[in-house]
Amino acid sequence: xxxxxxxxxxxxxxxxxxxxxxxxxxxxxxxxxxxxxxxxxxxxxxxxxxxxxxxxxxxxxxxxxxxxxxxxxxxxxxxxxxxxxxxxxxxxxxxxxxxxxxxxxxxxxxxxxxxxxxxxxxxxxxxxxxxxxxxxxxxxxxxxxxxxxxxxxxxxxxxxxxxxxxxxxxxxxxxxxxxxxxxxxxxxxxxxxxxxxxxxxxxxxxxxxxxxxxxxxxxxxxxxxxxxxxxxxxxxxxxxxxxxxxxxxxxxxxxxxxxxxxxxxxxxxxxxxxxxxxxxxxxxxxxxxxxxxxxxxxxxxxxxxxxxxxxxxxxxxxxxxxxxxxxxxxxxxxxxxxxxxxxxxxxxxxxxxxxxxxxxxxxxxxxxxxx
Length: 371
Known about the structure:
The chain is mainly α. It has helices spanning 38-60, 66-76, 82-96, 106-118, 123-142, 176-185, 188-200, 204-209, 255-264, 286-294, 308-320, 325-331, 339-343, 348-356, and strands at 10-12, 17-23, 27-32, 215-218, 223-228, 233-235, 238-240, 249-252, 274-275, 278-279. The N and C termini lie far apart (76 Å).
C-alpha cells in the first residue's frame, strides 16, 4: 500500500502533530495540536485555514471582528486600567470575539449578562465590562480607519442597557470598638497599614505603594507630609497606577499616623509598608478576610468588607468632628468642581489640625440598615 502523503502545513514532531501553515493575505498559522491522531490534526488545520481565509475576506470588505478591535485597543491604549480592560475582554471573547463589530448589540450581549448574574457577579462589575466593550465600539466607529480609509465600524455604536440588580454592597464605617477588634485580629504589618489608612484616608493602593521618596518634611510645623503622584509611574517592580482623579494628593499626618510612620522607618529603603522585603500587592488578601471575620464584622453580601471601609471611616469621623466640607474634600482626595477651592487649597496647618481631631474617640451613633 502506498504511503499516505503529508499535508502541507502539518508535521509530526515525534509526539504530536504541529500546524505550521502560511495563508495568503493572513500570514503564519502555528499551533501545537496536542494530539497524535492525524485525522484530528487535519480537521483542526482545516478549521484554522477556513478561519484565516474568512478573516482575509472580511478585511478586504472592511469587516472586522470584535477580537481584532479588542486586540487593537489593548495594543494602542495607554489608559492606567488597561490590565482590567484586558481581563474583561478576555472574559467576553468566547461569546463575541468572532462576531463582526456591527453584530455587537444587546441581543448578542444578553446571554453573557445573564450568565454573569447567574454566577453572582455584581451588576456594577457587569456595567464596567459593558463600558469597556462600548469604548472599543466607539473607537472603531469614530477613530479607527482601514487602509482604504473606511471606519472599522460603519454604523453608530449601539446603546447598551446597563444592568441594575439593586445588589450594591453598602460601605461599613467602623466604630471605635470595631476598629480595635480588627486591629487586634490583623497581623502586625496589616494592622499598621490599617491604622495609617483610618487616620489619613489614603486608598489601599496608595498605602501599598507608599514610598519614602514621597515624604516631604515641613520644619515649620515639625512634621512631614506625603505627596502621592497623580499620574502613572513605571518602577522596577511594577507600574504605580496613580491616583483615581489623576491629581497629586497631599497626605497629612496626625500624631497617630506619624507614630505609625516612625515605627516603619528603617524597615525598607523604598517602601513605607514592606512585606517580606518587598511591596505588598494589596491589603485585601486572605489575612485581611480572616481578621475581618475573627473581629466579628459583617460577612453578609450586603456590606463591603475590604480596606476601603477605612476610608469611609475616616470620612465619617471627619464629619462627626465638625470638619468643614471644603477641608474634608481635600483630606479625602476628592476632585472639587469648585475652581476656587481647586486653586486655593487649604493651608497644611489647617489640614493637620483637622486630622488631629481624629485622635480622640468621640461617641457617635452609627445607623445601619438591616441586611
